[in-house]
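Hi all, long-time lurker, first post. I run a small reading group and we've been trying to get comfortable going from sequence to structure in the token notation. Rather than ask abstract questions, I figured I'd post a concrete chain and ask someone more experienced to write out its structure so we can walk through it together at our next meeting. Sequence below, copied exactly:
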Amino acid sequence: QVQLVESGGGLVQAGGSLRLSCTASGRTSNIYTMGWFRQAPGKEREFVSTISRIGGRTDHADSVKGRFTISRDNSLNTVSLQMNSLKPEDTAVYYCAAKWSYSGLNYYTSRSTTDYNFWGQGAQVTVSS
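-- Answer (accepted) --
Happy to help. Here is the structure in token form:
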């Protein structure tokens, strides 16, 4: 159906930047909302950012507002997460997620894990102090 492949993770010093990318393949015409989630060791998976299919609607978790920016390029079937001013608390495995649907959810964003149908393999982001 849909495959999501992530890239761009790595090790960075506190205050530095990283850019995560996620490329979708398969039935990409049915991908609507996309998002990023993260999970740190011993913690639950948490919402990071989400973006609508069109219209530029975005939403970010309070913990990353002003530092992280989500974007997408539907012509390339990609979604990206630009992470600036990284903190050690940002260390986690970051997952790209996509909502696949026949419905026209062009302006929909979601913070809920359960709204997404497909997930990337995860990209490790480690921020050292």
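A couple of things your group might point at:
The mean pLDDT is 96.
Residues 9 and 125 are 5 Å apart (CA to CA).
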